[in-house]
Target: Dihydroorotate dehydrogenase (quinone)
Amino acid sequence: MYKSIIRPLLFKFDPEKVHHFTFSMIKTMHAIPGMKSVFKSIYQVNDKRLEREVFGLKFKNPVGLAAGLDKDAKIYNELDAFGFGFIEIGTITPKPQDGNPKKRLFRLKEDSGIINRMGFNNGGIELAVERLKQNKGVLIGGNIGKNKITPNEEAVNDYILCFDALFPYVDYFVVNVSSPNTPNLRALQDKEPLTELLSTLQNKNLQQPKQKPILLKIAPDLTNDQLLDIIDIVNDTKIAGVIATNTTISREGLQSVNKVETGGLSGKPLKNRSTEVIRFLSEKSNKSFPVIGVGGIHSAADALEKLDAGADLVQIYTGFIYEGPALIKEINQAILKRK
Model:
């Protein structure tokens, strides 16, 4: 029903407007007594064999929602009913910001992809914290970034502000230095500034009575030498792991007229490269740290491919938009069939 009726209807309208409309509809439907139970009965797969313990956290299943969809922690409680094992909110910055000028979100229907140049549009850390106080048992990742106006030399201060404010309300952190939509942000992926940033956050983490896992989200456009640097940095700073990967700036092999738009590309065109990065990190590090695999998962087979390449958990975003919420159930059922 989603792909035959709902998606064609939604895809007739501007993607950013549809995003806000869909949020409103999900919120409204869940407010109807009994509807959350209906969604759970349709989409959730509850089986102990799906449970995973990764970086000290217990996940009810290995399929999560990637950052970017619920930037401001508005509907994570409602999205949980679709069967996700965990939900990542953000990217959140210390201060509210509007992001880049519209139009900034583009569907590539022929390629089953999306290009976005949103630019970390969000309501700021304080608003997110107030919403996270309403958490009803959802395992939450907090994806943090810097404000656009903050120069790279002072970026660490923005990450510290987000880290401190979110610490009581999230289960793990994701340091986002790999979005292509904030000027010069990706320069923070260079070895020296990245080591300094992660070391600073990890030192703050170690001062807490109970530490929270810190992960690094990396771009798929890194070279093998840069990926080897990432392995060294993760091992040196002793952060918990890596999310591979963010969106790509590559436009190789695209068919859609929207391929000329600037921004980060997600969806099917990213599938092979993200899997390559996962496999490279897993093999070259001798599985010395966990990897969350994300990028181009549009089917259960795509998710299994990521897991086989070395991912410990997977996340979806664009696949959720193109394939609908049934995708989560399909992945979990495919994992169980292997047991």
User: Anything to note?
Assistant: The chain is about 40% helix and 15% strand. The CA atoms of residues 201 and 207 lie 10 Å apart. The first helix runs from residue 2 to 10. The chain has one domain: 2-337.
